[in-house]
Amino acid sequence: MATKHEQILQYINQLPIGEKISVRQIAKALNVSEGTAYRAIKDAEIKGYVSTIERVGTIRIEQKKKENIEKLTFSEVVNIIDGQVLGGRSGLHKTLTKFVIGAMELEAMSKYTEAGSLLIVGNRVDAHELALRTGAAVLITGGFDTEEYVKKIADEKALPIISTSYDTFTVATMINRAVYDQLIKKEIILVEDILTPIERTAYLYTTDTVQDWYRKKRETEHSRFPVVDRNLKVVGIITAKDIMETDNSLSIEKVMTKNPITVGEKTSVTSVAHMMIWEGIEILPVVDDFNRLKGIVSRQDVLKELQMTQRQPQVGETIDNIVTTQLDASSSKTEDPDNYQFEVTPQMTNPLGTISYGVFTTLVYEVANRFLRSRKKGDIIIESLTIYFIKPVQLESTIQVVPKILDSGRKFAKIDVEVFSRGSLVGKALLMCQLIER
After folding, report:
1. Which keywords does the record carry (predicted)?
2. Is 40 helix (H, G, I), strand (E, B) or coil?
């Protein structure tokens, strides 16, 4: 039977898109305490079922799919620019396809304003009306209001008209930054993108026997299975090692490994890879917030996805991407593959104008990884990274990174990395890492 928390989530999920909800309303409708309703609504917000907007309230929104995560909803725009909704509240859940700066004549503006777009404009009532009649939402800058008849049009067409105290340039920059951040998020591979769903997952119940394990093994040609109770909650995992020299009539519950490591659907694949290598795990059960089985993810799936991701360009650049791009460019200009050169750009500096500690750490890791891959030793999982010292490296300085293997085996490596600027040693690091064979 579903818990009260689950019942509230199911209730919210069935509400029509755009409907406004409140803690008191949910508590009354489902006969639960306001505290329980509040926690469930916050959980629904995390899951993307609802969005809370200051001075408006909480509204039911459409859950974003992975392919359109780079698009913003109007409710997200309100939160980003600290806006006030003047009309068209029922359309806040809608997604904007593009935004248009209204710094032009009305006739020219009509060529660019279309359904689904957001017109960013100042105190121009005629432009507000034009945008709404063409199916576009309106964002008024400078803290201005609009006419009452324009607000009525917004309500009729369910198109938000928003006011903000920021100027047009600042607003456009803020929205562009938010879209850019969404592009970066889109490229992060999560467990939900690669898991084998429960419909195709082989698992055993606690009441099954060792004999059932042998049957599953013959059917699937696998030997590791999650163990669940009658509510599909993961309570253990069973492998060939667990059933060695045991009676076939014994129940799975008596021989399984209890309290297994599990992951959620929103866990990044990189975190799972580290967990699997560190713990020596071949498969991980994927569970929901209530520890119910959603599927499994295997080490093979994770490594395959990581190798594929490394070959694909990322749309939104992070500092890691900038470091990687520079190293790619420097390696193509030099005959020595182990000669890594790097230029300190403004994005990589701290407030004092020297290379930041985080960028230095990223640089050391990336060079070590490339160095080992060039020797066909595979990718690495860092166990420890020690930076002995780092001298200030100025903006626009060119630095050389020199890695050296101190010790290595089939499963591990110890690497020394020295960093030079203008011929002087400015940084030194020691990495202990495990190797992932490809």
Report:
1. CBS domain
2. helix
Rg (CA), the chain: 28
- Choose between 340 and 277: higher pLDDT: 340
* Domain range list for the chain: 4-60, 66-187, 197-307, 317-436
Among residues 427, 420, 432, the alpha carbon closest in space to that of 339 is found at: 420
Going from the C-alpha of 212 to that of each of 226, 259, 282, the distances in angstroms are 13, 21, 21
Cα(182)–Cα(187) distance, rounded to whole angstroms?
Answer: 9
For CA atoms 243, 228, 216, 207, the dihedral sign is positive
Q: How far is CA 326 from the centre of its chain?
A: 24
Q: How far is CA 39 from CA 5, 61, 63, in A?
A: 8, 18, 19
Q: Are 151 and 87 in contact (CB under 8 A)?
A: yes
pLDDT above 90 for 438:
no
Strand order in the sheet with 57-60: 20-21, 57-60, 50-53
Nearest Cα neighbor of 434 from 382, 392, 391, 394 is 382
State whether CATH 3.40.1390.20 applies to domain 66-187: yes
Check if the beta carbon of residue 40 is closer than 8 Å to that of residue 9.
yes
Sequence length of the chain is 438
Topology (CATH) of 4-60: Arc Repressor Mutant, subunit A (1.10.10)
Range from 216-225, 354-363, 375-384 carrying the lowest mean pLDDT: 375-384
